[in-house]
Amino acid sequence: MSPRKKFLAMGVAAAAVLGVASVTAIAPSAAQATHSRGPKPTVVLVHGAFADSGGWNGVTRELLRDGYPVVAAPNPLRGVASDAAQLKAKLAQIDGPIVLVGHSYGGMVISTAATGNPNVKALVYIAAFTPDQGESAFTLASKFEGSTLPETLRPVPLPDGNVDLYVDQQLFRQQFAADVPAGEAALMAATQRPATAAALNEAAAGEPAWRTIPSYHLIAEADRTIPAKLQHFGADRAHGVKQREKGASHAVFVSRADDTADLIERAARETD
Fold this sequence. Notes:
Elements: H1 3-18, H2 30-33, E1 42-46, H3 57-65, E2 70-73, H4 80-92, E3 98-103, H5 106-113, E4 120-126, H6 137-141, E5 153-157, E6 163-167, H7 172-176, H8 182-191, E7 195-196, H9 197-201, E8 215-220, H10 228-237, E9 241-245, H11 252-255, H12 257-270
Parallel strand pairs: 1-2, 1-3, 3-4, 4-8, 8-9
Antiparallel strand pairs: 5-6, 6-7
Helix pairs in contact: 3-12, 4-5
């Protein structure tokens, strides 16, 4: 149980003892949440392939409640270099410290976009790729057995010669979101954003940001898209902090939004 859930459970128990009809959890105001060490960092959330910014709603709700400014940045999913350049421009407009979070292919993007930005104090990888120079999402995914993603992908040829890749809607839940309620998973399948084949095959260029910026890694242990072994490999190589989520699917940021927010807030505290 996360610290937040434990707190609420204690509140309900206290209410029962005191004979109070109900308990309302009151979140601290932004002013109360500000440390004497300075304002809380802005959390920038970057979605991956086959998702969109709306998938972060549960995490965003938790972070806002705890006084963190949040930006759920759109990820074009067109190519690692171009996606990272767009994110880098967005980060340059944010004043003060930043905690940069990436899910899945978003890990490819944040590893490049954060390089050279002194405001980025921590990187958080949520069931994500943690690439080194010269590695692509596809080459990393084939490093360990366990991913069943390739057989679920459906190509859509584009006029420019590229190919958009979607996850078959009928297979989306079992592949991407097995621990998400069926209705919500169906909505995710219908609103998924495709990644180009070129983006998933494009190698990361330059030194990755995790070599110089502290990293935190949420490991989805039942992930069928990025095998848990690969997530552990990336975290260990980066000498990052790991948080294991047993039974969690690739959509762990949806199914376990509170645990995801807890790790992000830990990164913010420990790198303040």
